[in-house]
Amino acid sequence: MTTDTRKQEEPGSMSPTSPTSSATPTRAPHQDVPTGHKPDDGKVGGGLFDPRQLLKSFPDALRKLDPRVMVKSPVMFVVLIGSVLTTVLAVKDPGDWFGWAIAAWLWLTTIFANLAEAVAEGRGKAQADTLRKAKTDTVARRLSGDGKTEEQVPGTELKIGDLVVCEAGDVIPGDGDVVEGVASVDESAITGESAPVIRESGGDRSAVTGGTKVLSDRVVIKITTKPGETFIDRMINLVEGAARQKTPNEIALNILLASLTIVFLLAVVTLQPFAVYAGAEQSMIVLAALLVCLIPTTIGALLSAIGIAGMDRLVQRNVLAMSGRAVEAAGDVSTLLLDKTGTITLGNRQAAEFVPVRGTTEAEVADAAQLSSLADETPEGRSIVVLAKEKYGLRERHQGELTDAEWIAFTAQTRMSGVDVDGRKVRKGATGSVVAWVEERGGTVTAEAQELTDKISQAGGTPLLVALEDTDGARVLGVIHLKDVVKEGMRERFDELRRMGIKTVMITGDNPLTAKAIADEAGVDDFLAEATPEDKMALIKREQAGGKLVAMTGDGTNDAPALAQADVGVAMNTGTSAAKEAGNMVDLDSNPTKLIEIVEIGKQLLITRGALTTFSIANDVAKYFAIIPAMFAVVYPGLDKLNIMDLSSPKSAILSAVIFNALIIVALVPLALKGVQYRPMSADRMLRRNLGIYGLGGLVAPFIGIKIIDLVISLIPGIG
Amino acid sequence: MSPVLAGVLQLLALIAALALAYRPLGDYMAKVYSSDKHLRVEKWIYKGIGANPNTEMRWPAYLRGVLAFSAVSVLFLYLLQRLQGSLPGSLGFKAIDPDQAFNTAASFAANTNWQSYYGEQAMGHVVQTGGLAVQNFVSAAVGIAVAVALVRGFARSRTGELGNFWADLVRGVVRILIPISVIGAIVLVACGAIQNFSGIHEVGQFMGGEQQWNGGAVASQEVIKELGTNGGGYFNANSAHPFENPNPISNLFEIFLILVIPFALTRTFGKMVGSIKQGYAILATMATIWLGFIALMMWTEFHHGGPAFDLAGGAMEGKETRFGIGGSAIFSVSTTLTSTGAVNSFHSSNTGFGGGIDLLGMQLGEIAPGGTGSGLYGMLIMAIIAVFIAGLMVGRTPEYLGKKIGTREIKLAACYILVTPALVLGFTGASMAMDTPKNSMTNSGAHGFSEILYAFTSGANNNGSAFAGLNADTQWFNTTIGLAMLLGRFLPMVFVLALAGSLAEQKPIPKTAGTLRTEKPLFTGLLVGTIMIITGLTYFPALALGPLAEGLAS
């Protein structure tokens, strides 16, 4: 079962583990794929927030006080102006402790806001450093025009279209496609995955990434990206937040916050003439304090940190979002296109039964199948051995046990495996291969065997033939039925998605009958059988025409148009560069199940933003009750009845509100970085829950917080 | 019967009447604005003004229609007042001064009906009936037209076309306002309101001395004054005047007229966007605030302590004994929560809190239920703001009625909510900072401040009621309040229509289990909270120095 976002709150949990994180649909089923999990090097720990990060990021926070940086957040820019203004006033009247206190806390408010952003960015920096190490200056071996002579050039001088040679031990100098040869490549620099992957010319596994290392063989690579714009460069920019642009919703929220700031600015600026008339002229310091308390500083301070942290949560799951827009869109997705293989079903088919032909028993087939599969290390081969053991009680034998046996290992070319022992030759494998093997040896394949295989194929399974040659000649013993196995927990997962209002569509190349059987078993809402890339594209367009946002994964070049069309297109890192270029996210683990998590992270990002906005605005009520009586109870004693918190003195009341306003930012930094807890549930329940916590909480919390701060302040001698 | 019980019974009767009218009127209005047939009289009008009622307008064209029509209205009213005296039927009144004529013209074209003049001492039959009463009809119809355009923005997709302004305007007048007004006027006359074109009568008073009584087409003007949420009385005493509002029955009927269209428009809205429930949610929000304010008002007016108050059963100063505290409280809340501004008691004489409730009602933007049309579009803007904040909390980018609330939409909504606070606080602040405007106050202290705050709140929100006490017929107030009324009316319309255009261009988003349910009580509660916090808190400091200071002093 994959981890969901809930897990991220647990210490130490990193990114999701999926039992079959390995398999992607286009991978040859018999290819050795790395399973297991990537090491933790260079990655920032899960959603955990370490208070030390605050201290570490402090210098960055100070650097961000530059007005040219601050102006990007209108709310915090107003606070900065307030800080400067109150400081000037405090300097003019140095004997007034109140002025100094307000000025100091306004500065702290500003710095806390910068700190939130700096901490969020700091988490990405560690990862960027690891990436930079991979991007050491490489020397490329460029092939000249005739393709014969090599010249040594710095990697930075490569142009698009250049051909370079890489041999074992070479670092690939830039992004490109393998045009000649096959090699195993260590991509741990970008994926964190230590097991090497195969890259070969042609097909869907030709893309190589600059900064990765060739471990064996020799390949010729055609460079497809300009230096400085390579995948690794973009990754560095992304994780550092340098390339971060405000997302549409973030811009919209900023507009709303700016307009609220203007409204409160008006309220405070016009207050002075009213106050003068009432005979209670206010000092600029008090007015600045009031203004800062009223404008939505909490969300203004945390807004950009929330965005950065959202991207970071994806990075921690080894997903790179090429645009923040895509992360937001992920929250809005209402249709998920999921590839059957590797996402809904286990990547590999598994043996489900042994079917004997007339004249043989099931046990005989099982025995022969097991024997012939011992030399087959593919998951399918293993599943045959396991089935024979579980269903027929055949003890698993080992190759060493049988002396004088000649093992025929499975290869992609022969598509057969088997063993020659005691004058018997046992084979199992793809129908065509086994039929050819039997006929070569003078045997005939009965019509019955043909019927059996056809029946299995029609039911959506994959038939493998088991054959034997002994003194009676060569003949087929029976058929192994390989079946798709739906991953555990998928049904629950799809139920959850349905409750969230997300429709799941299974995409498969299978015929409609098989597809329906698996779709029903897995509990998806719909399926697309015998899907061609065109069908996929048409489906996406149809959903989008109905106003729905569509998310999908893909890795082949023929997936590229659909990836580009989808609102959230997650390309597998194992995929072609065309696919990676077309999608707006890349999953370095190449795990299609992650699409579901991406949606959840998108939602979590939006919820966090909304929750903190609500909290921030709701806070204002209490602040009014603290500050207004403090300002005007002198002239209108009746207003002291509004001092329901019973704050000790006017100065302490105003100062307490300002301090609360500053401290709440720091207090909420962990929440902004981790994100609000998210559980899949209907919109209605989610709203009720979040409104209760952040709306009512936002109303009540400051009353308590300000009162406590006031109690502390009143203890300080000479004040209060 | 105790006055409290009387008040509650009046309220119940009112609610029953509104409930009865809600469905038929709401459905009828939906039909009026969705039909593609024209009445014969409408065709004549289209021919007369040279408009083609069948062309669909995008928002800029629709806006041009609104602004051009209103500009002509202002100009026409201004000239009519300036030429009074040279016109027949002027009852011997002279031309109105330029600043006051501007103020009045702006006031009536903006559906505000702020009056810095005494009707019976300044305006003859021609100006009253030919100018002001006509504006009472058309300015209300403009408001409904803009609201309907916004509703079409939600209802339509992939077009950007919002309907035809001229058709909406003419239909509003011909098919909705005039028929109800005719019936309403008859009811009012039956109650005892006057309807004639007679001149000024000199009447002897009981205590000696002479009094002048004007005749006039009062009932017909009274009915549209309430129905169109205008509020400009024929007489200075407005609905406290026995010729306008003779008895408790007429009083209740007038309150009914004030509220009936704004409430019923939520049904029209629900019908037109294809979900009656969405209309109910908006209705529930409006009704919650309205009832809450009435409860508060009754509480503060009935419970005002002191021997004189106890004898009168509450704060009777400035109230008509004909209506009592209940009838006055319901009227004053209804008139300030709509953009009406008619009064049957003097808000200045309310308790400190009572005055504050009136002020806050207007400051909320007059959206519960608000003016004809303007209440609905104001409430929908607040719904957009609420959806934007709360929508995020369900993990989707915000959407309302199947339309995305993106950057452009929130920009327009944000501009909308900026307009009136800027006008109210800006002009009030300027007035308080200068010396001369303060001479217009008749009270000192917090109450004096409330007078000025009330004047600009009333003007910018197109209410038109006066706190009384303030002498607003000065150049400063005539000009600034005139500007506040025009900007407070038409700037928001610009943003509303631009928003409508932007919504109509979008493609609709289908509803799923992940969609925020805006038809549920939870959303209604959220919307009430958003309104109270976002618009209410804007004015809290000002309110603290006016009505709160006064109310908490005792």
Overview of the molecule:
- The complex is a heterodimer of chains A (720) and B (554).
- By secondary structure, chain A is α+β, with helices and mostly antiparallel strands.
- Chain A has 24 helices and 22 strands.
- In chain A, the strands form four sheets. Chain A has a seven-stranded mixed beta sheet with strand order 10-22-21-20-11-18-19, with helices on both faces. A six-stranded antiparallel beta sheet of chain A has the order 2-1-3-9-4-7, with no helix packed on it.
- Chain B is mainly α and 554 residues long.
- Chain B has a domain of 182 residues.
- Chain B contains 19 helices and four strands.
- Chain B has a two-stranded antiparallel ribbon.
- In chain B, a hairpin with a 2-residue loop joins strand 3 and strand 4.
Strands of chain A, total number: 22
* Global shape of chain B: globular
* Helix amount of chain B: 55-70%
Q: Kindly, what is the distance between the CA atoms of the first and last residues of chain B, rounded to a whole number of angstroms?
A: 29 Å
Provide the β-strand percentage band of chain A: 15-25%
Strand order of the largest sheet of chain B: 1-2
Termini gap of chain A = 58 Å
* Helix proportion range of chain A: 40-55%
The average pLDDT value of chain B, as a whole number, equals 92
Overall mean pLDDT of chain A stands at 83
The SSE string of chain B, one letter per element, is: HHHHHHHEEHHHHHHHEEHHHHH
Structural class of chain B: mainly alpha
Task: List descriptors.
heterodimer; A: 720 residues; alpha+beta; 7-stranded mixed beta sheet; 6-stranded antiparallel beta sheet; disordered N terminus; B: mainly alpha; two-stranded antiparallel sheet; 19 helices; 65% helix
Summarize the structure.
The complex is a heterodimer of chains A (720) and B (554). Chain A is of the alpha+beta class and 720 residues long.
